[in-house]
Amino acid sequence: MKIVASKFRKDPLQHPTYELGIAPGATVKTLADLRGKKIAYSPGQAQGALVLRVLAQAGLTKDDVTLVELPSTGDVYPNALASRQVDVAPIGGVNIKRYTAKFGRDGATTIRHGLRDDPGHLYVRTATLEDPAKAAAIREYVAAWARASRWTYEHTDEWIAGYYVKDQGLNTADGQYLVELVGEPEIPADWSDAIAWHQETIDILARETGNPVLKAQDLYDLRYQTVGADAIKDGV
What we know:
By secondary structure, the protein is an alpha+beta fold. It folds into 2 domains: about 1-10 and about 120-190 and about 210-235, no CATH class; about 20-110, Periplasmic binding protein-like II (D-Maltodextrin-Binding Protein, domain 2), CATH 3.40.190. About 40% of the residues lie in helices and about 15% in strands. It contains 9 helices and 8 strands. It has helices at about 45-55, 75-80, 95-105, 125-130, 130-155, 155-165, 170-180, 190-210, 225-230, and strands at about 1-10, 20, 40, 65-70, 90, 110, 120-125, 185. Helix 1 packs across helix 8. The longest helix is centred in the middle third of the chain and has 23 residues, at about 130-155. It is globular and about 55 Å long. It starts with a strand and ends in a 5-residue tail after the last helix. The model has no long low-confidence stretch (mean pLDDT about 95).
C-alpha cells in the first residue's frame, strides 16, 4: 500500500478528531490521572495509536494502565464508558456530543488530550500504482478529492443537508456540530511534516507492541505530493 494524499485540519488542537470520554464516577481531569485506569484500546486502529501516544505524552506506558481491547465501531465505546466497563475511551465525531448529552447527568464527561490527531490519508495498492493508466486516474481522483474537501467547508449548509441529514440520517444540529468540529481542511503541498509525524507514531507503536519499525517515507508515493494542493490553488 502507498499513501497518495494527505489532509489535515487547520488549528488541529482546537478541532481534534477524538476526545477522551470519561466514565461516570471516574476521576480523570488531566492525562496524569490516567495512571491505574481501564482504557478502551483497539490495536491496529487510529484510536489505539492515539491511546499509546496519549500515554507517552503523560509519561506512562501500557503497563501503568489496564488496556481493555474493544472494537471502536459504532457506539461500543460510549456504551462501555456508561456501563463502567472502562474508565476512559477515545470517542470521536457526533459520539462526543451524544455521550455527554445522554450520560452527563450521571457524571459522564470528556477531556481533550492536547495532541494532534487529525491526519487523513488516501491509500492505494502498490500494484495499482504500477499501472500507468490507473496511476493517471488516481491522480485525477486525488485532485477531485481535494476540491471536494474544500467544497464541503465552503458550502456547509448544502453539505449538512445532502450528506449528514439525507445520507447519514443525522439531524441538522448534529451535522452542524460535526462541521464545526472538523473546521477548515488543510491539504499541504509538502509532506515533510506529515512523514515526520507519521514516523513518530510508528516508533511509539513499535516500542509498545514489539513490532518492527517501518520507515514512514516508504509509505508515501511522492509523485502525488502536490496534486491535492495544486487542485485547490487559487480557489480552483
